């Protein structure tokens, strides 16, 4: 019996020490990774044009050092397109108003010793047993634009791209606010912007 107990204790200790697992995620709105995470790449946020009906939904973190395969220069209408991304923050309060029309950076980050990564909307802290990677505000495309978009957690202390060009449009990020009805209020509040956190777990 004692032998089995010792084996179980050794197994539990080894499991805690295991650093073979890791998670990779994108930190939207920042060029760097949080403390404890390794920077894989710092890039440009890209996506589809805000009013293209055939738009791709998810944003991309595009590297600053692209590599090319076989290519043909010149715009061809029989293609999908990728553009840059901009913040649309003019109706919010505080320092985020200054982000208006600026280009959105991104960072791909690797955290070792974790096996699960998850974005939780409407939270400022992680649930018990989870580790905070970053916190932010939930953003997405404007509700009446034709292009479909994806809810994205933009860092609450967002940066802008150096050398970017203002008001060139592309994929546009607007704050997401709650609307009551099928969404229960309370606990949600009509017209209140939603926060978000990205959390990891062993």
Describe this structure in words.
The chain is built from one helix and ten strands, in the order H-E-E-E-E-E-E-E-E-E-E. By secondary structure, it is mainly beta. Strands 1, 2, 3, 4, 5, 6, 7, 8, 9 and 10 form a ten-stranded mixed beta sheet that branches. The mean pLDDT is 88. Residues 1-15 form the signal peptide.
Outline the biggest β-sheet.
Answer: 10 strands, mixed
Instruction: Write down the overall mean pLDDT.
Output: 88
Tell me the fraction of residues in β-strands, as a range: 25-35%
| Rg | 20 Å
Helix content: under 10%
Uncertain residue segments:
none
Short description, anyone?
This protein has one helix at about 1-15, and strands at about 20-30, 40-45, 60-65, 85-90, 105-110, 115-120, 130-140, 150-155, 170-175, 195-200. It is mainly beta. The protein starts with a helix and ends with a strand.
Sequence-ordered SSE layout with sheet pairings:
Blueprint: H1 2-17, E1 22-28, E2 38-47, E3 60-63, E4 83-88, E5 105-112, E6 116-121, E7 131-140, E8 152-155, E9 171-175, E10 195-201
Parallel strand pairs: 4-9
Antiparallel strand pairs: 1-5, 2-3, 2-4, 2-5, 6-10, 7-8, 7-9, 7-10
Brief descriptors of the model:
Ca-dependent_lectin; signal; mainly beta; Short-chain collagen C4-like isoform X4; 202 residues; globular; single chain; ten-stranded mixed β-sheet
